[in-house]
Amino acid sequence: MRLLFILLVSFFCAYLPVNKTLDKFIYKPALTKPFAAEDKYPVPPDNANRLFYIQRTPNTNTIIYELNARNGQVDEENPINVYWIKYAVDGQKEELNYIQRKFAYGIITKKLSNERYDVRFVSYKKFPLLLMKANDGKYHIFATVEQKQIMLNRIFINIEGGTFWLPNIVYVEFKGTDPLTGKELIQRFKP
């Protein structure tokens, strides 16, 4: 539990103003082989309501962020449902526990307009995400990375060693789609 909190906090600390520069966007065609660490991780089953997911080492358990809608109407009070797929335990679906919801992977949403919501991770409220409809008429999560807006699909955190409180984060990677061109965008950096 604490490790999850630390991983997410470490991930978001990369956005604090420090003297580290982010790599430039890597434009990678969808058919190229993924980075080596990603080879071990399953892709969650297709779901029309899935917005994005987070995967991280040391296991394949995945946090899913899914649109909470019924009959085409978004739940204004709780527009995003967050849960685990426990691949390390037979792929079971499991809700986040209290600590995960309140201190690590949970989110806070605020309605901005009819079809737009401000979304923030509870562990790092300074990093804004935007839930809104895209040109395809479906809801997506948008993130701004290096002054470029992407439709976020996946966040991956690669950890090698370190301690319980200070894991050695090798890199954090955003994977998404350019909403204008449809190209896959990957932003990888070392926090």
Give the C-alpha Rg: 16 Å
**Low-confidence region ranges:** 1-34
Largest sheet: 12 strands, mixed
Overall mean pLDDT score?
A: 79
Give your account of this protein's structure.
With 191 residues, this protein is mainly beta. The chain has one domain. Helix content is 10%, strand content 50%. It has 2 helices and 14 strands; from the N terminus they run H-E-E-E-E-E-E-E-H-E-E-E-E-E-E-E. Strands 1, 2, 3, 6, 7, 8, 9, 10, 11, 12, 13 and 14 form a 12-stranded mixed sheet that branches. It has a two-stranded antiparallel ribbon with strand order 4-5. Strand 4 (69-70) and strand 5 (73-74) form a beta hairpin. The two termini are 21 Å apart.
Q: What structural keywords apply?
A:
mainly beta, 191 residues, single chain
Topology:
Elements (H helix, E strand, L loop, with lengths): L1 H12 L12 E2 L22 E7 L2 E9 L1 E2 L2 E2 L5 E7 L5 E4 L2 H7 L2 E7 L2 E6 L2 E10 L5 E7 L2 E15 L4 E11 L6 E6 L2
Parallel strand pairs: 2-12
Antiparallel strand pairs: 1-14, 2-3, 3-6, 4-5, 6-7, 8-9, 9-10, 10-11, 11-12, 12-13, 13-14
Helix pairs in contact: 1-2
